[in-house]
Specification:
It is built from 21 helices and 3 strands. It is mainly α and 514 residues long. The N and C termini lie far apart (57 Å).
Length: 514
C-alpha cells in the first residue's frame, strides 16, 4: 500500500501509541492472572502512568497536526478505508482533547484500586468494603461524561456517552426498544421451562464428578479442535474469565474452574475462544492495520455475538453434546457407571439447564438477558437517577426477585459478582444482551448460506462455520457499527425475534424425549 509521507508519519505515531496500549493490556492481564495481591498499589501507579502517556499521545497538538496533515492529503480518489480511518481518528481525538489529564490518571488509579478491592470484598462477601471504591468510580465517570459531552456529535445522556466506546451510536431509547420484547416474552418462557421435567441434580451438573484436571484437559482438547495455536495464543486462570489481545500475534484468554459446576470451565473456554477468534480474524493484514481503527472490533455487542455463537450455538448444541459426551465419560473412566448424565441426551440437558440462576456468567440462554436488563437499569439508577451506592444490594436483590424470581443469599452472588463496576465500566453490560440478538440473526444468515448448522457440527466441521464468519463478519472491523453490520450480513434490521425463536426451538427440543 503506497502511503503519503503524512500518512506514514501518522502510522508511526499510531504504532507507538498501540505499543504503549499493549503494555498496559499486558499489565492488566498479569494483574488478573498471576500478580500477587500486594502488588496492587504499585500496579495502579504503573497503569496510571501509562494512561497519562496514552492520553497525551492521543490528544496533543502534535498529534492533531499529524491527523490534520493526513486529512489535508485526502483527494477525491482517496480509498474509502483511509477516509473512514481518519474520520474515526478525528472523532477519538476530539474526545481525548476534552479530557483533563488529571482525570485520566485518577481514573486509571481508581480502576486498579477498585479491581483489587472488589476481589477481596467479593471473597469476603463484604459490600461495605467495596462501596467507597464504587462511589469514587461513579463520581469520576460522571466527570468524564461531562467533559466528553462537548465532543459528542449529538446530544447524549451521561450513560450514553460512557457507552459509546463499547457500542458506537447506541442510545437508551434503542436499547429499551430491543429489550422490551425480552422483558415481555422471557418470563413466560421461563415458566414453560420450569414445567419441563428436570434431570436429577447429579445429571444436571455431573455433581462434582469431573475432576479439575480433567476439566482442564477437556478445555485444552476443545481449543485444539478449534484452531488454537500455542505460538500465538495463551490460556491462563483468573477470577473472572476474559479475553484480550496484546499484539497482532499475541492473543490471551482466561478461564476458571467453578466448584460444583464441572461444565462451567468448558463453556467459558468456548466463550472466550469465540472472542479470540474474532480478534484473530479482524482485518489487520499482518501488523499494518493493527494501529488503525478499521482493524478494531465493530463493537462489544458484535464481539459478544462471536463468543456467544461458539458457546451457545456450537458448544451447547445437541450435535456437539453427542460428540463430546463420550470424551467426558472416557475421562471419567469409561462405561455407563462413569456417566453421571445417563447418556448424551442427559449431557446435552446439563449443558442447557434453561432455568434461572443467580450468577450471570453461569446463566443459560433463557435467563441471561434478564441479568443484563437488571444491570442496565441499575447503572442508569446509579449514574443518572441519584440512587445511593448503599442502596445497591437491596435494589439488586429486589429486581432479581422481580425479573428472575430468585433471591441472592449473599452480595457475592448478588451485586458483587461482576468485575465491570469495579473497573468503572459503565455502559458495557448491554453489549452482552445485544450479543445474543446479533448472534441469533447471524446464525440465521449462516444457515441460509450453509444449510443445517447442526449437520456441520455433527460432522466436526466447525472450520466451515469459522470460514463463513471470516468471510462475512470479521473483516468488517469498524467500517460499520453493530446495527449496520447486522443489516449488511442478514439483510434486515436488528431485532429480538430471531433470538426468541431460537429459545422456543430449544424448549421444544428439551420437551421431547430422546
Amino acid at each position: 500500500m503506497v502511503m503519503s509521507s503524512a500518512f506514514e508519519r501518522l502510522h508511526q505515531h499510531l504504532h507507538q501509541t498501540r505499543l504503549l496500549g499493549s503494555i498496559s493490556s499486558a499489565l492488566y492481564y498479569d494483574q488478573n492472572t498471576v500478580m500477587p495481591a500486594a502488588g496492587a498499589a504499585w500496579r495502579g501507579e504503573q497503569l496510571a502512568l501509562l494512561a497519562g502517556q496514552l492520553h497525551q499521545r492521543q490528544s496533543s497538538a502534535d498529534y492533531d497536526e499529524l491527523v490534520a496533515a493526513a486529512e489535508s492529503e485526502l483527494g477525491a480518489d482517496a480509498p474509502p478505508e483511509r477516509r473512514r480511518n481518519l474520520a474515526l481518528l478525528r472523532l477519538e481525538l476530539e474526545r481525548q482533547r476534552c479530557l483533563d489529564p488529571q482525570l485520566v490518571s485518577a481514573l486509571a488509579k481508581a480502576q486498579s484500586r477498585g479491581n483489587a478491592v472488589w476481589q477481596d470484598a467479593r471473597a469476603r462477601n463484604d459490600f461495605a468494603a467495596f462501596a467507597p471504591a464504587l462511589k469514587e468510580l461513579i463520581a469520576l465517570r460522571r466527570q468524564q461524561a461531562s467533559q466528553l459531552a462537548a465532543a459528542e456529535p449529538v446530544a447524549r445522556s451521561p450513560w450514553e456517552i460512557l457507552a459509546q466506546p463499547f457500542e458506537p451510536d447506541i442510545s437508551k431509547a434503542r436499547l429499551e426498544e430491543l429489550f422490551l420484547p425480552l422483558k415481555t416474552a422471557l418470563p413466560a418462557l421461563l415458566e414453560r421451562a420450569a414445567s419441563v421435567q428436570a434431570p436429577d441434580a447429579a445429571a444436571s451438573t455431573g455433581a462434582a464428578m469431573v475432576p479439575e484436571a480433567l476439566q482442564e484437559q477437556l478445555c485444552t482438547e476443545l481449543l485444539d479442535s478449534w484452531g488454537y495455536d500455542p505460538a500465538r495464543c495463551q490460556r491462563s486462570r483468573s477470577a473472572h474469565p476474559f479475553s484480550c489481545t496484546l499484539g497482532p500475534q499475541d492473543f490471551r484468554i482466561t478461564t476458571r474452574v467453578v466448584p460444583d459446576q464441572p461444565l462451567s470451565a468448558f463453556l467459558a473456554t468456548a466463550h472466550e475462544w469465540g472472542h479470540s477468534l474474532y480478534e484473530q480474524g479482524l482485518p489487520r493484514l499482518g501488523d499494518h492495520y493493527f494501529p488503525w481503527p478499521l482493524g478494531e472490533a465493530t463493537s462489544m455487542g458484535v464481539h459478544e455475538s462471536q463468543s456467544l455463537f461458539w458457546e451457545c450455538r456450537v458448544a451447547r448444541s445437541r450435535a456437539f453434546a453427542e460428540r463430546w459426551h463420550l470424551r467426558f465419560c472416557t475421562g471419567l473412566g469409561g462405561g455407563s457407571a462413569s456417566d453421571p448424565w445417563g447418556g448424551s441426551f442427559g449431557f446435552w440437558r446439563a449443558l442447557n439447564p434453561l432455568r434461572p440462576g443467580l450468577i450471570r456468567v453461569e446463566a443459560d440462554e433463557l435467563s441471561y438477558c434478564l441479568h443484563i436488563v437488571l444491570r442496565f437499569e441499575l447503572e442508569l439508577a446509579l449514574l443518572e437517577q441519584e440512587m445511593p451506592v448503599e442502596d445497591l444490594p437491596q435494589q439488586w436483590n429486589q429486581r432479581m426477585l422481580e425479573l428472575l424470581g430468585l433471591q441472592p443469599q449473599s452480595d457475592s452472588e448478588g451485586c458483587l459478582q461482576d468485575i465491570h463496576w469495579a473497573e468503572g465500566l459503565f455502559g458495557y453490560f448491554p453489549s452482552y444482551a445485544l450479543g445474543h440478538l446479533i448472534s441469533a440473526q447471524l446464525a440465521e444468515a449462516m444457515a441460509r448460506d450453509l444449510g443445517s448448522l447442526d449437520g456441520l457440527i455433527a460432522a466436526a466441521q466447525e472450520s466451515v462455520l469459522q470460514g463463513w464468519l471470516a468471510q462475512h463478519v470479521w473483516p468488517l472491523g469498524r467500517r460499520v457499527n453493530a446495527e449496520q453490520l447486522v443489516q449488511q450480513v442478514s439483510g434486515r434490521a436488528l431485532q429480538a425475534q430471531p433470538f426468541l425463536d431460537h429459545l422456543v426451538r430449544q424448549l421444544e427440543r428439551l420437551e421431547t424425549s430422546p
